[in-house]
Design brief:
Blueprint lengths: L8 H4 L6 E7 L2 E12 L13 E7 L8 E7 L3 E13 L2 E8 L1
Antiparallel strand pairs: 1-2, 2-3, 3-6, 4-5, 5-6
Length: about 100
């Protein structure tokens, strides 16, 4: 599993518009597509090892996930345990955000 403290926005940018798999039940999973990587320069903390950023995924409208730690899998990025927060639906699905400070 990736060390989240070592990841930056630049680590995610190559995977924009790619799918991450979220196992939900035995033999079942959801596909979450990475749709945004956003720097958060105004939120910089003195002494931080990286600049804060957020990433946004889009999944299906149903089932909608509650905010929780999700163990995502990607063929090249590997496994990630991210705290995802639902930020609401759009016409294409439900959006979820993970914030890195």
């Amino acid at each position: 599993m990736k060390d989240l403290a070592e990841l930056s926005a630049e680590d995610f940018k190559p995977f924009l518009e790619e799918s991450f798999r979220l196992p939900i039940d035995e033999g079942q999973s959801l596909e979450l597509r990475l749709i945004e990587v956003v720097g958060r320069r105004g939120d910089t903390v003195d002494g931080a090892r990286r600049s804060p950023f957020s990433i946004v995924f889009r999944g299906p409208h149903e089932p909608a996930l509650a905010q929780q730690i999700c163990r995502l899998e990607h063929p090249r990025m590997g496994r990630l345990a991210l705290f995802l927060v639902p930020v609401g639906p759009d016409e294409d699905g439900m959006r979820y955000e993970a914030v890195f400070s």
